[in-house]
Amino acid sequence: MLGLTPLELCYCGLVLLAAYGLRGSTGFGGSVGMPLLALVVPIKILVPAWTLLGLVSSLAILGKDRRLVDLKKFLFFIPWCALGVVVGLYFFSTLDSRTLLRALGVMVLAYAAYFFWTTLWPTAEPKPAPKFVSPLAAWLAGVVGALFGAMATVFFAMYLDVKTMAKSVFRATVSAMLLALCAGRGLGYWAAGEFTHEVWIAFAMAAPVMFFGIWLGDKVHVRLSEAAFKRLVCAVLFVCGLPLLLR
Known about the structure:
The chain has helices spanning about 5-25, 35, 45-65, 70-95, 95-120, 135-150, 155-160, 165-190, 195-225, 225-245. It is mainly α and about 250 residues long. The mean pLDDT is about 75.
């Protein structure tokens, strides 16, 4: 990390600011920054450092929003996601990851298009998604988390069915889910000895920018109407779904 040029450091700062600005305003979407940072930061340093950033950013958001977490949704998510992790580990060695990524990309973009359509012609009482969608989305979050890491958060929005949730409840619950995911992944990296000296340096360099991004995102979140918030989530889903489709 200390070997990066000033231009590369500025690039990393801008990516972090944009990624965690999204995170602070919507509760997810920060994962779009990881593949961009991978262009200049070694993956062995980036992945554990990104896990630490995800853990701390979730704690920062939950510091004042913890009472807004939908505990029923959160607790229902855990076993389905764990099952998805097991299946994802199996798929990791047996399936063509590129084909699977493209299929998931189509699914995310289709959901984002449907969700955007519902924001243009809202009903007085938004209809909840079919009952099978929540366990399927939680399972897919586990599968994608095991296979590809950061992109699992895309399926959090599908699981929570954001069109039926208040924006503050959605952001708090996504942050609680991401906290659990990062804590589990972090324990694995710690057991494997992946939190090296360079990882902690990278985390220390990135943390101030991450906090500033979350602060800016929170200011945006407060000012957004419910309809504008939902459209922003749609846009983030599109941005996250395209890389899956194009890999």
